[in-house]
UniProtKB/TrEMBL annotation:
Pathway(s) served: Amino-acid biosynthesis; L-leucine biosynthesis; L-leucine from 3-methyl-2-oxobutanoate: step 2/4
UniProt: [4Fe-4S] cluster binding residues: 347, 407, 410
Listed name of the protein: 3-isopropylmalate dehydratase large subunit
Keyword Iron attributed: yes
Name of the gene encoding the protein in the UniProt record: leuC
Subunit structure: Heterodimer of LeuC and LeuD.
Function: Catalyzes the isomerization between 2-isopropylmalate and 3-isopropylmalate, via the formation of 2-isopropylmaleate.
Record organism: Plectonema cf. radiosum LEGE 06105
Family: Belongs to the aconitase/IPM isomerase family. LeuC type 1 subfamily.
Keywords in alphabetical order: 4Fe-4S, Amino-acid biosynthesis, Branched-chain amino acid biosynthesis, Iron, Iron-sulfur, Leucine biosynthesis, Lyase, Metal-binding
Residue ranges crossing the lipid bilayer per the database entry: none
Amino acid sequence: MSKGTLFDKVWDLHTVGMLASGQTQLFIGLHLIHEVTSPQAFAMLKERGLKVMFPQRTVATVDHIVPTENQARPFVDTLAEEMMQALENNCQENKITFYNIGTGNQGIVHVIAPELGLTQPGMTIACGDSHTSTHGAFGAIAFGIGTSQVRDVLASQTLALSKLKVRKIEVNGSLNPGIYAKDVVLHIIRTLGVKGGVGYAYEFAGTTFEQMNMEERMTVCNMSIEGGARCGYVNPDQVTYEYLKDKDFAPKGQDWEQAVNWWNSIRSDADAEYDDVVVFDAIDIAPTVTWGITPGQGIGVNQTVPLPSELPSDERFLAEEAYSYMDLAPGNPIKGTKIDVCFIGSCTNGRISDLREAAKIAKGHQVASGVKAFVVPGSERVKKQAEAEGLDKIFQAAGFEWREPGCSMCLAMNPDKLQGRQISASSSNRNFKGRQGSSSGRTLLMSPAMVAAAAIKGTVTDVRELVS
């Protein structure tokens, strides 16, 4: 095994060859597909008379377009029904495993693959979805890809990619109560910028990440893409192995011991060289809220919307656009901003630990008058577990709606959409203009616990005021 970073080791092990373009032809160990970016890719294969090369390395689910209130088929939305039928037919024709609604394993693609043990250290993973970087939490190298690249992986199980530089992002110290993984990654993106990671893979290291559970690490890696990085990862360790052990697709028996030995060998070496290193202190991280139209436009909950003069000159034009679109005046506090809709869910924060933290805040309280608040589990397994723990009852008693699994109001390719100028407190990953289904709707990103606090107070609230 060559010395170096995990990224270098995994990249080298999966290199099929070098292309004339200077790119690497990289073998993809696991290909995840869903209903949105796959129909065109399958159509391209048919046009060329090609078959799926390794159907056993492809796994499908449905998540983006599924309604979270009424999932009866056929769907009311005819386009959504067509996309469902296309995925069902393509999987059947190509003998691809498909976790459909009602199988017990359906859910957001970046939630189900880890919980099934499909995602493992040292893998290369691709999916036609930006937030594939989530799987890097396991020490995998995971890429979000476009539709033509989905076609390439289906046809050849390889991708043409340019090798990335590696930036080590070290965060040290314990997080204070009320500070979560979402705050950590929003703080990193706020500091380094939404383009800071262009051309890089981010390796997340330091005692803060070592103390995080796997679901927290997934939240951080999920949003690496929002910082411009093509992928983000955490070196596998005992936390990783304890999460994976006994999962459906995890190695068993003697194979498990061999796998752990190999996983340990691909960890970044102590003397690995990085293209850049950035160090943060956990004590400097506050509950973080976005105020603008990119995930990098964030501030601590007790800070004020920045003045143009406080921003670097190259950020001022976008800031002016954000002030106008969000209708938030520079110099005003973000805390106290009125909220219309509260959404807990998404591939960033729709896992069981996210719901537990939000439920702790919701318990014994009531959603504020005039606020629509709802919780969308990330998968059928998450929903089942949450209900076994009584979390659904806690949310419902507090006035939250309890939904079926899906992407929901993150991308809003389903009935869950903002209306008009509504402003949303969201545990999702993007606050772009129109992101949550309304061309004029506004999104404030924050942790699930912060969303629960906003639902109770009806305004952006410092969750630490509600943490017992």
